[in-house]
Amino acid sequence: MNSSAHHTRSRLTTTGALRVPEITAAFWIVKGLSTAMGEATSDYLVRVMAPPVAVILGFVAFLAALVVQFRTARYTAWTYWSAVVGVGVFGTMAADVLHVALGVPYTASSALYAILLFAVFALWRRTEKTLSIHSIDTPRREAFYWATVVATFAMGTALGDFTAFTLNMGYFASLALFAVLIAVPAVGYRWLRWNPVLAFWTAYVITRPLGASIADGLGKEKSVGGLGLGDGTVALVLTLLIVGMVAYLSVTKADVQRAPTVEAEKVRENA
Tens digits of per-residue pLDDT, 165-185? Predict the structure, then answer.
């Protein structure tokens, strides 16, 4: 390997280092908070400043967080969750732009992002032979991972708006629906021996519309079915909760994946 190639590699993910957290209760808590926070923050920003400016700022912040994540040698809570929060904010904006700016119906945008998500999954699977998050240890695999995360956020945002507005379910009925749906992969994995990779990504996708429904239900005006707390207030409270959780994870390192044994790695790869 020449010095130029080595220099490039040194600025990206360290090969062999695990790049994402272990899936624990804390993971799902912070993931849920980040989806709700992204929804509330996005809606707040596009109301207090020109929407094009908000979208550009959201993209720049997301890109900056992702660059820092890739430049970090291995998983650390602050860099990883900063990138997730960046996806949450910008992913919401990306989905909303299709509907608000371009007039694309939520039905079409939900379908479009679903196709995009499945395309990313198919390419990832074909290229890397696995979709397991326990195998995110190279720059290319991490790139597939974040492309998937962006697609899940965009699709989840459109899907939440689809149930709330197109189906006229409102925020809290949508919340109840997605709360039931997210229990399906949990039950399937725990008692029905579902494939763990399938169960994980199914739950991961559903956390987005679930979180968005929570944020909208709390923040939106009473006239449209919300509690009227305000998007800014909801975003601030959720941000503080995320900071507290990530600080806890940074100190305890409770979600740092350990190097798997050979036997455990074979089970994970076959999953």
Answer: 999 999 999 999 999 999 999
Helix then strand then coil, in percent of the chain rounded to 5, is: 80, 0, 20
- Give the C-alpha distances (Å, rounded to integers) separating 218 from 15, 43, 122, 227: 42, 13, 36, 5
Q: Could you give phi then psi for residue 192, rounded to 5 degrees?
A: -110, 10
Residues in the chain: 271
- Total structural domains within the chain: 1
7 domain-assigned: no
Q: How far is CA 205 from CA 35, 102, 234, in A?
A: 11, 24, 22
Cβ-based neighbours of 260, under 8 Å, separated by 6 or more: 134, 268
Residue 135 lies in a domain: yes
Domain holding 163, by residue range, is 18-270
Contact predicate 87/62, CB 8 Å = yes
CB–CB of 68/246 below 8 Å? no
* Interior/surface letters 45-79, b for 16+ CB within 10 angstroms, e for the rest: bbeeeeeeebbeebeeebeebbebbbebeebbbbb
Query: pLDDT per residue over 16-53, tens digit each?
Result: 678 899 999 999 999 999 999 999 999 999 889 988 88
Q: Exposed, middle or buried by CB within 10 Å (0-12, 13-18, 19+), for 103?
A: exposed
